[in-house]
Inverse folding.
């Protein structure tokens, strides 16, 4: 191994993290500085190889020096978003994983699977949902860390006392926005999955009426996209206001009224679903009961959502 | 963390700003990386090369230093010089340093 190799390898290791444009400049400067330091030691009587060794060891780990040169974050999620990321991820895992486990297990049991396969597919399903959740949530925050519009905290000059977080839930936090967006995305994914593949393994059977595709489903997606946009606006505004709550109510009704109308018209849920899944022959009755529960669910959730937004706007 | 490591960390934090100030004041005459390192050490500013080199680039990026490659000699070197903004920063930091020194002197004495 000859003498120049160590220096060049060291420079290479340092400049890896430096943006392309400045790489040659940093390398040239570092090369001159290292050569100066080696010369100084050789003038003091040290052999060339020892001098190079000592200079490079003194400069320390290349990664640390590289971190000093890099003017971009060398972390995935920094202090600006870490707490939001952690809170959202924990919350989503705590909510979605049990739901996924329950849903998968129920689907398997309903389709008449044995105990072993039920446990097997539940475990593997929950694992893959968890991995997806963690990946996509983290990816969003990584993108925000790099391309997010808000300046880093230490550079924020225009923060105000009014901007301090409220001790109560305002429903307009960063986490609120992201959880809304992610739930909407997961909901859309579930609907597409249901209509195209079905949730019952081995049966190409959707829970929702296949006749809803494409018109009604497209309409639903438009409403969901508007809800997502509303969540972003509420977050940017900083709190719920009465006009925003009115928009929320309109969107809620735009979802609930057609859904209820379709439900009582018998066109929302797939009439073939329960008779196929429930093999004892009571499928039609289960369908009836489930329709009533779904109706109350839609009314309850929508009303609560509308009232909650107004409650937050009035505070 | 041992006591010694803690001491090192605290000393490093205490010195960080003084090195910026020293660089800005020394570079009213153009200087390059290693030469500046020598001068800092000779003047009693205990500085590591791996702190100084990235620091010079950051100050340049902020507009407090200007730089120029000097290729007249056998070894091309990047020379830095304090900009007008850098001089204003140096003056402000010097004032603040005096204020801090005064405030520390007025603290209750350690036995």
């Amino acid at each position: 191994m000859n003498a120049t190799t160590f220096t060049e390898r060291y420079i290479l290791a340092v400049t890896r993290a430096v943006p392309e444009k400045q790489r040659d400049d940093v390398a040239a400067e570092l090369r001159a500085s290292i050569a100066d330091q080696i010369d100084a030691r050789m003038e003091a009587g040290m052999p060339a190889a020892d001098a190079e060794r000592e200079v490079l060891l003194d400069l320390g780990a290349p990664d640390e020096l590289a971190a000093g040169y890099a003017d971009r974050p060398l972390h995935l999620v920094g202090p600006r978003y870490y707490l939001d990321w952690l809170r959202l991820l924990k919350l989503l895992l705590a909510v979605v994983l049990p739901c996924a486990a329950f849903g998968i297990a129920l689907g398997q049991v309903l389709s008449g699977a044995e105990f072993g396969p039920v446990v097997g597919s539940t475990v593997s399903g929950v694992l893959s949902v968890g991995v997806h959740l963690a990946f996509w949530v983290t990816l969003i925050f990584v993108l925000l860390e790099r391309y997010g519009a808000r300046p880093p905290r230490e550079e924020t000059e225009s923060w105000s006392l009014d901007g301090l977080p409220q001790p109560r839930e305002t429903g307009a936090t960063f986490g609120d926005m992201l959880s809304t967006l992610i739930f909407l995305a997961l909901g859309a994914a579930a609907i597409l999955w249901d209509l195209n593949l079905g949730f019952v393994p081995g049966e190409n059977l959707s829970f929702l009426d296949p006749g809803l595709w494409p018109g009604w489903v497209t309409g639903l997606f438009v409403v969901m996209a508007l809800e997502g946009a509303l969540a972003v606006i509420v977050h940017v505004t900083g709190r719920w206001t009465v006009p925003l709550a009115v928009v929320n109510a309109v969107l809620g009704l735009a979802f609930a009224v057609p859904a209820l109308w379709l439900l009582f018209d018998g066109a929302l849920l797939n009439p073939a679903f329960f008779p196929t899944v429930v093999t004892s022959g009571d499928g039609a009755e289960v369908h009836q009961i489930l329709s009533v529960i779904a109706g109350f669910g839609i009314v309850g959730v929508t009303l609560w959502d509308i009232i909650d937004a107004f409650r937050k706007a009035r505070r | 963390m041992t006591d010694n490591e803690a001491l090192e960390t605290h000393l490093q934090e205490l010195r960080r700003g003084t090195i910026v100030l020293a660089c800005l004041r020394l570079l009213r005459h153009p200087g390059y990386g290693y030469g500046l390192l020598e001068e800092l050490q000779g003047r009693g500013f205990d500085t590591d090369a791996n702190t100084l080199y990235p620091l010079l680039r950051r100050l340049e990026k902020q507009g407090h230093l200007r730089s120029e490659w000097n290729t007249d000699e056998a070894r091309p070197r990047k020379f830095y010089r304090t900009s007008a903004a850098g001089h204003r920063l140096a003056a402000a930091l010097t004032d603040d340093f005096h204020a801090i020194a005064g405030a520390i002197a007025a603290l209750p004495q350690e036995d």
